[in-house]
Amino acid sequence: MRTAKLLAMCGVMVLMSGCYVVSLHPFFTEESVVFDQALVGTWTLEKQAMTFKQAYENAYTLICTDEEGERCELEACLARVGNFLFLDVYPKEIEDCSNGLLVPAHSVMRVWIEGDVLRVAGLNYEWVRSMIDEKKLEIAHEYLPTRAVSTPPGKDSASFKWEEKPDNPILLTASSKNLQDLCLKYGDDKEAFAEPGEFHRQR
C-alpha cells in the first residue's frame, strides 16, 4: 500500500478509499516497449517528484518522492501503442519476509513527453468499474476483497473478515496482448484515463 500511496501522490494512479486498478501481467507486449532518453531526469509537481533513470536497455528505474520526503523505487517500461505513449510501472522489490506470498502488480498510465513538460494520466478506477458492471468491457479480472477488523458487541477481542465492497481494488488477469488492446482502444478516451497531472523538468 505504501507504493500505491506514493504513486497516487505522483498522479500516477487513482487511489481513493482503496480504489485502484492493477494487473497481474504487464500491460504491453515486448514488441511495443521502447526507450526514450527524453524521459530521463527529475520531474516535479509542487512538492512531489518523479525521477527516471535508465535501468536497462529498454527500462527505467522510477523513484517517486512525496511532499514529506518519503520515497519508493519502482521499475517502469515505456510502450508505444498506436499514436499513444504509456508507462507500465511495477515494484522493483517487495521488502517483506512473506516468502513469495506477495505478488508484484502492474499499473498503467498514459504519458505525454512535451519538452520540459511531462503529463501523466492514470487509468480511471470508476470508469473501469462502471464499464465492467455494465458489461461494456469484457476483460478478465477479479475484485480484491478487503480485510475488515471490528470488535463485536460484548466481545473483548477484535475479529476480521474479508469483505466485498463497491470500492474494492480491481486486479486485471488478462494477457498482456488483451491489456495492450484495451489501452489502444481507449487511449484517447478522456473518461478512461484520469485528468493528467503536469510535471515540469527540474533543471
Summarize, please.
With 203 residues, this protein is mostly beta strands. It contains three helices and 14 strands.
Question: What descriptors fit this protein?
Answer:
203 residues, mainly beta
User: How many individual domains?
Assistant: 1
Gap from first CA to last CA:
31 Å
**Helix proportion of residues, in percent?**
10-25%
- Main sheet summary: 8 strands, antiparallel, barrel
Radius of gyration: 18 Å
Total number of helices:
3
Q: Give the percentage of residues in beta strands.
A: 35-45%
Contiguous uncertain segments of 5+ residues: 9-18
* Bulk shape: globular
State the total count of DSSP E strands. 14
**pLDDT averaged over residues:** 83
- The H/E string reads HEEEEEEEEEHEEEEHE
The largest sheet has its strands arranged as 3-4-5-6-7-8-9-14
Class by helix and strand content?
Answer: mainly beta
Q: Care to describe what's here?
A:
The protein is mainly beta and 203 residues long. It has one domain (2-201). The chain is 14% helix and 39% strand. The chain has three helices and 14 strands. The strands form three sheets. It has an eight-stranded antiparallel β-barrel. Strands 1-13-10 form a three-stranded mixed sheet. A two-stranded antiparallel ribbon has the order 11-12.
